[in-house]
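Reopening this ticket.

The earlier resolution said the output was attached, but the attachment link was broken on my side. Pasting everything inline this time so it's all in one place.
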Amino acid sequence: MKLHSPSTAGLLSITAYDAAHIAVNGQRLTRSFLLTPQRLIEDWSPASFAALTEADMQTIADLGCPIVLLGTGSRQHFPAPALMRPLIERRIGVEVMDSFAACRTYNILMAEGRDVAAALIIEA
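Inline output:
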């Protein structure tokens, strides 16, 4: 699916997705990644929801965004509270959804000027 958003010149947005990839500003990504309006961190380590670790969550927390959208792959899965500890301790709001819903929500919040991060799992 191709996505079209309002003018967001100079910011990173999600421009397309399908079962095998997600595109950021036209760049096709096939591995899990972290995204803020100003920064793309490619090759974030989890290859699936089951592979998600507390260290991965710490990497998200270190981005410093007050809102995080956690895209858990093709289906929505809720992490155990212990896994969420790095985000909870920093009082970071987390919304958990499937990765495609997280893509759409990220674009809306980013276009509104919100300080948001998307942590998107792309399953191999």
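Reporter confirms the inline version is readable. The chain has a mean pLDDT of 93. The two ends are 19 Å apart (CA to CA).
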